[in-house]
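User: Structure please.
Assistant: Input sequence and predicted structure:
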Amino acid sequence: MGHKSGYGNANRRGVHRMIRHLLALLLLAGCASTNWRAVAVGATALDTAVTINMINHGAREQNPFMASAPPARIVAIEAAILAGIWLLSKDLEPEDQDTIWKWVAVLHLGAVAYNRR
């Protein structure tokens, strides 16, 4: 996601602080939880919220599927992706489901960390 130079430093610091706290909470929940699906959904929600916040402050989305999408469509796309992952993985063994949801969480948390640079 590209950044706009007019994005205020004070606001950016506040957003970064919020993201750090939410990332820490998600990581702690992931370490203490066996429900990786919930952690992945939380990570996806955080990624979506950060993306929409950044777009609202002038950043450009680099994902071609979402580049021109309004916020409601971004939320719908992310929800559809999660629903598809759940549908395709629901009949797998619990260990395999956990592995898939861990990767979803890691990918979204990675996106959040990348976007806050």
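The CA atoms of residues 64 and 90 lie 29 Å apart.
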